[in-house]
Amino acid sequence: MTPPGGRAKAFGLIGMAFGLGFVVGPAIGGLLGGLDPRLPFWVSAAACLANAAFGWFVLPESLPPERRMAFEWKRANPVGSLNLLRSQRQLLGLATIDFIVNLAHQVLPSVFVLYAAHRYGWGETMVGLTLAFVGICSALVQGLVVGPAVAQLGTRRALIAGLLAGSLGMMIYALAPTGSWFWLGVPVMALWGVAGPSLQDMMSRRVSPSEQGQLQGANSSSRSVAGMIGPGVFTATFAYLINWLPGAAFLLAASLLIGAAGVAWVVTAPSRADDRFA
């Protein structure tokens, strides 16, 4: 049986790899783009193909045949996979948190560049450096902070603390009068990374081994929906309030994360959850 916090730490290491890729990827893309505008896309396609080949030929199947779920088309589609999230009240509550979190995250790719250019006069170089700093802080949190945080706080409190840290980071972004103050918000925002692995740990413990893949598919479907809604919401907020409150989109995201923390407080309360949420 996986020890408490073990899955959260594993999810954190995955996040660390993502953070490192967030630093290295843009740098490689920039260098390749300087040689030919199409070259980054060809290299990305080759990397995806190599990744798929590695998964097919090298990675072993972790689930023995007798524990695998039979294939059914009604589950193997974006809508059908969401039915799993409705199978348990606690799982649905956790899925709601995941949706709100991913909706709030859409503010960063949607308005960050526009906001930084409008408020701080940043160009491509400063934006690139800031994204690299974000990636470094994210990788450090995922690799070095998630495990100890979950071990000390427990999965439930680590989740709530991570969501509140993300909300505080969003507020700093929204209210920072200068670019230097914005940079001070990056390490605070990075602590939001504690929430994701904790949430994934909780959700994965609510389903059987044969349903783990279906759970990841359902989560991906939910995040895709958030990805369709978020850009319109945050860009409209930024556009309508740009002259009065330029950081309004980040304040909206902060409010969403506070709401997610409130849902987490209720859904994972000891009276409603078992010791796996401790």
Task: Write a short abstract of this structure.
The protein is mainly alpha-helical. 74% of the residues lie in helices and 0% in strands.
Could you characterize what this model shows?
By secondary structure, this protein is mainly α. The chain has helices at 6-35, 39-57, 78-81, 89-105, 107-120, 124-153, 155-175, 179-190, 195-204, 212-241, 248-267. Helix 4 packs antiparallel against helix 11 (248-267). The model has no long low-confidence stretch (mean pLDDT 84).
Topology:
Blueprint: H1 6-35, H2 39-57, H3 78-81, H4 89-105, H5 107-120, H6 124-153, H7 155-175, H8 179-190, H9 195-204, H10 212-241, H11 248-267
Helix pairs in contact: 1-6, 1-9, 4-9, 4-10, 4-11, 5-10, 6-7, 6-8, 7-8, 7-9, 7-11, 10-11
Head-to-tail CA distance between termini: 16 Å
Low-confidence stretches: none
Helix run count? 11
Q: Report the mean per-residue pLDDT as an integer.
A: 84
Order of helices and strands: HHHHHHHHHHH
Q: Which structural class do you get from the secondary structure elements?
A: mainly alpha
The shape, in one word, is globular
Rounded to an integer in angstroms, the radius of gyration calculated over CA atoms is 20 Å
How much of the sequence lies in strands comes to under 5%
Number of β-strand runs:
0
Tell me the helix content. Answer: over 70%
The largest sheet is:
none
